[in-house]
Amino acid sequence: MFKKFIDFSVFSLHNRYIPALTLIALFSAMAYKNVNDIMISINDDGKIINISGRQRMLSQKLVIDAKNYLVLQSPESKKQLNKTIKLMENSHHFLLNRELSKQLKDIYYSKGLHKQIINYLTEFKELINTKDQKQLNYLRLHSNEILIKLDHAVQIYENENITKMQKLKVREDYIFLLTIMALLFEAVFIFYPAAKKIKENKEELKAQIKLRTNELQNSIDIIDKNVIYSRTDLKGIITYASKAFCTISGYSNDELIGKPHNIVRHLDMPKSAFKDLWETIEKGKEWVGEVKNLKKNGDFYWVEAHISPEYDLQGNRIGYAAIRHNITDKKTLEKLNTNLEQKIQKEITKNRQKDQKIFENEKRSQISEMIGNIAHQWRQPLNMISTCAGGIQLKQEHGLLDEKSLKEDTDKIVKTTKDLSNTIDSFSSFLSSNNHKERLNIKDFLEGLKNIVQDNLHDNGINLLLDIPDKNLEINTIKSDLTTVLLHIIYNSKDILLERGIEKGFLKLSAQKENDNVVAIKIEDNGKGIDDKIIGKIFDPYFTTKHQSQGTGMGLYICQIIVSKRLEGYISVTNTLKGAKFIINLNNLT
Fold first, then answer.
1. Using CA atoms, how far apart are residues 481 and 559, in angstroms rounded to an integer?
2. What is the 3-state secondary structure (H, E, C) of 62-96?
3. What string of pLDDT tens digits covers the 590 residues of the chain?
4. Within 13 Å of residue 443, how many CA atoms lie on the same side as its CB?
5. Sign of CA dihedral 499, 503, 504, 510
6. d(CA 381, CA 384)
7. Strand, helix or coil at 402?
8. Per DSSP, what are the bridge partners of residue 238?
């Protein structure tokens, strides 16, 4: 009957491990929880006992700090007294926020220790203002009464902690006993039958190993013939070389074994490549790279190498293994393509250099304008700083400088210098050479541009208007390039308005969404427009209506290049009833 019970399906050898492991896991979890509870109890209760004990110390320290304060009446002694009051308040609230036993609740609430401590601390706060020696004497006597009650509370904390630890110890003993019983049960019903089954499977496993060993040897022979494979010791001495390695290098196996692997090193390979290789594999990592190797007959071949460390059963590094793939044909083709690409790239670089020189000249011109704007915007703030500084000096010389007026003047100087710094930040942002696209809010961007140029325009009698109906309109673009284009058109329009003596001249910047993929930015003036005979030529290189001393005629041409090639958009111009309107259509796809 016992044997029949053992053979029952639930207790079959195959299925016994699940309940056994579950039982072990259950007791392990119980033991872990008990240990965790003990650690938590030690940590929390120890902290509580420590803090409750610190309250006793603080109740006495308050009297000492109060006495020092009444004697010295210095800011430092006052600060120290406030600090001690705060420490005792925090300690008291920490203890009350913990879960209290019935006995502790009775001490703090029913017997009034909580209220006594609060009143005690309140009287010390009042003492800071009253500075009454009699009140200090009263508090010194009251401190002894609170100290006695705090001693009682600490003793209760310690007793409760001892009781709790005893309960946890008893629970630990029960868990240990149950675990021993479970292990004995598992030894009889699981491990002994399992050992018997393992012995039965051992012979079958030996037969399988022999079969798989033969199959593996066949696979190794195939790999040996077709894979460029080698192994070395820790110093790079070859300990194994596949037949494929011998074939491609032209060396026999005997000529390779025992030789350093650099026997196939080609002089074209830089030492830095092998330095990186050794640094990588000596750190226990795999190195992957392309290597040019030397054949025995002086010829060469290229391989893609994968080199990684090898370890023994104890985890000690014993050497390195390398698998290589022949890429000679690939490298030959790459060299042909590289030569062709270099020729093409050389011509492209020449053209880019020409455009870059033109762009840099245009940029210098704009920077000059921007510096003028900075000087203009700084003039008034600098006068303000100078006035405040002079006023401070004058008041000091005549003995009229007081703390209030000094603070007011220095606050003005600090605020003004902050405004100057913000001005520089604004100009720096628009002069940034970042060539990456970013998401711009059109309204914020154009308002920033307006802040830069409006004072210059205003001084020349030109009003700058903004018209952006959609405040949330955004676009992906290169900010510095868009800034360059808009500033050039704005300064061109300013020159036209001044040259033609336009009274009440204005510039209008507007932006709107043309469709889901296009945003249009428009710059319109009232400068009487562009002659119909030349309006179709203004984007041509070297075309200008100005005198040679005033420009080269490359500005609008560069604007067109920037918009079309860098911003992926289109720029055009048309005449209105009052003047000219430039339209920049920009692709808004991400």
1. 9
2. HHHHHHHHHHHCCHHHHHHHHHHHHHHHHHHHHHH
3. 444 444 444 445 555 566 666 766 776 777 666 666 566 655 555 556 666 667 777 877 887 888 888 888 888 988 888 888 888 888 888 877 777 778 877 878 778 888 888 888 888 888 888 887 877 777 777 777 777 777 777 778 778 777 877 877 788 777 878 778 777 776 666 666 666 777 777 788 888 888 888 877 777 778 878 888 899 998 889 999 898 889 998 999 898 899 998 888 888 888 888 888 898 998 989 999 889 899 989 898 999 999 999 998 888 999 999 898 888 888 888 888 887 777 777 766 665 665 555 555 555 555 555 555 555 555 556 666 777 777 777 777 777 777 777 777 776 676 667 555 655 654 555 455 567 888 899 999 999 888 888 888 888 899 999 999 999 999 999 888 888 889 889 988 999 999 999 989 999 999 999 888 899 999 999 999 999 999 988 888 766 665 443 444 457 888 888 899 888 899 999 999 999 999 999 987 55
4. 7
5. negative
6. 5
7. coil
8. 232
99 DSSP assignment: P
3-state secondary structure (DSSP) of residue 73 = coil
Dihedral pair phi/psi, residue 415, rounded to 5°: -65, -40
Residue type, 100: L
Cα separation, 263 vs 71, whole angstroms = 90
Name every residue whose Cβ is closer than 8 Å to that of residue 155 and which is 6 or more positions away in sequence. Answer: none
| Cβ atoms within 10 Å, residue 389 | 13
Cα torsion at 231, 235, 237, 238 (round to 10°)? 0
Show the tokens assigned to 265.
């090193």
392, 424, 429, 419: which is closest to 408 by C-alpha? 392
> Which position has the token pair 């650690």?
39
Identify the residue whose tokens are 């220095």.
410
33 with 172: CB under 8 angstroms? no
